[in-house]
Amino acid sequence: MSSHLFSTSTNGETHPLTYRLREDRGYVDLDEFEQKDGYEALRTTLRELSPDELIDNMKTANLRGRGGAGFSAGVKWSLTARGDDHPRGYIACNADEMEPGTFKDRLLLEETPHLLIEGMILAGYANNAYRGYIFLRSEYVLAAQRIERALAEARKAGILGSRVCDSDFDFDIFLHTGAGRYICGEETALINSLEGRRANPRSKPPFPGQSGAWGRPTVVNNVETLCNVPAIALRGGDWYQSLSGGRSDDGGTKLYGVSGRVKRPGLVEMPMGTTAGELLELAGGMRDGLELKTWLPGGGSTGFLLPEHLDLALDFDTIGGAGSRLGTGLLAVVAHNQSVVSLTRNLEDFFARESCGWCTPCRDGLPWAARILHALENGEGEEGDIELLESLASNIGPGKTFCAHAPGAAMPLETAIKHFRHEFEAGIRHRQREAHAEPIPVGSV
User: Of 13, 60, 92, 124, which is least surrounded by CB within 10 A?
Assistant: First the structure.
């Protein structure tokens, strides 16, 4: 079943990602897509813009990566090795959406795959690529079926393959379903898996833009990032930057979402800088009888924030300044009657299981943290466990592991202890006994 949308719009000037969606939430085929300006940006760009001009538009738009890292897509493209002295390369779409609490890319993949295809072709044109790969989470079976259908429609119409849209540009796209590994969300691990290797991250440099898949320049972008490209190419970077309406320095709109114990979990396209409070209101608020305790702003690898943070702009810098990360921009809300220790244990179990095992702090540190959390959850913790968890989180933080997997796992752990230390203390054995001990009757000893 597709994700619920809080609201819809048919205005492409304000909702570039979702205005083509059908009311019945079905597949938007090629004919319907083209009736709503589909592939117009591609044809116009191939006719009127050079690759460098398209990249300049992307820089002006300030489209920051929607997969969670928030790096400027335009800057990333400008660093790709291009020109006659470099081989033509690849565009890899990261559709391995496995971040806990995240389901935004699924909407785009299932309902408007032609938007992704157009974005990938434009990315290929800008980056001197001749082939694209959609690296899809294998569980997204309906998305795979619809992507294949859209690719076939595009090839038949001359939009993919040799002489794209009767131009001198050649580009084709192929679907690749992954084997179900969260680590493939890291761009170099994705490339290794695409090549048929074990999905371990690679050492950088060289960066994929210089030497990626099969040694060729490779640009890896998230689904939502690429789906924004056609609108930027068609209407310009200044227009896209203005969509945030002054709420944020980050350009454009964002597919935000809410999950957890709210009345209407789902997705909505809103300007960058929309607040968490606005999203919670769109979701109908907390379920009856429940109060908000804490929330994650963008998936399981972001830090816990409090109700007092609901008025913060949901953009990369503002949320980063509050001690968390925007991540994927999908809020996971936690009710007052839920255990933060149990939630954190569940997350750390996931991250420990999904570690590729390449570096010691991640391979050994995450299972160790998970074991301690299991003990605290069951009231079997020992003195020093909380301090040990803090030390483990520090030792797997940024710059201390091979990739960002372990630092991502550390953030919810660190912030959970910071904001809810008393819940962790309640899981320590002797403190639990003291809290429930009954007075000893006089004369009984």
Answer: 13
* Residue 432, pLDDT score: 58
Low-confidence ranges of the chain (pLDDT < 50): 1-2, 437-445
Q: Which residue has the tokens 């929309």?
A: 274
Is 3.10.20.600 the CATH classification of the domain at 253-335?
yes
Residue 205 burial class via C-beta count within 10 angstroms: exposed 0-12, middle 13-18, buried 19 and up: exposed
Q: Which residues pair with 253 in a beta bridge?
A: 271
- Fold match between 30-242 and 340-431? no
**pLDDT tens-digit readout, 310-327:** 999 999 999 999 999 999
Bridge-partner residues for 393, per DSSP?
A: none
Amino acid found at 34: E
DSSP 326: -
CATH superfamily, domain at 30-242: NADH-ubiquinone oxidoreductase 51kDa subunit (3.40.50.11540)
401-426 b/e (C-beta count within 10 Å ≥ 16 → b): bbbebbbbbbbbbbbbbebbeebbbb
Q: Smallest Cα–Cα separation from 128: which of 82, 92, 74?
A: 82
**pLDDT given for residue 109 in this prediction:** 98
Place of tokens 């996971």: 332
Q: Could you read off the pLDDT of 389-404 as tens digits, one per residue? A: 999 999 998 888 989 9
CA proximity to 262, closest of 302, 303, 310: 310
Helix axes 40-48, 113-126, angle to 10 degrees: 10
Token code pair at residue 100: 């806990």
End-to-end, the C-alpha distance of the chain in Å comes to 65
User: Do you find a cis peptide bond into 412, omega within 30 degrees of 0?
Assistant: no
- CATH T-level assignment (fold) for domain 340-431: de novo design (two linked rop proteins) (1.20.1440)
Q: State residue 77 phi and psi, 5-degree precision.
A: -65, -35
C-alpha distance from residue 264 to each of 3, 77, 166, 286, 313 (Å): 11, 38, 46, 9, 21
* CA 289/CA 271 separation, integer angstroms: 31
| Neighbouring residues of 144: CB distance < 8 A, sequence distance ≥ 6 | 136, 175, 177
The structural domains of the chain, with segments of one domain joined by +, span 30-242, 253-335, 340-431
The answer to whether the beta carbons of residues 3 and 106 sit under 8 Å apart is yes
Alpha helix segments (H runs only) across 62-208: 73-78, 104-111, 113-126, 141-156, 187-194
- Tokens for 387? 């301090």
Residue 397 is predicted with a pLDDT of 87
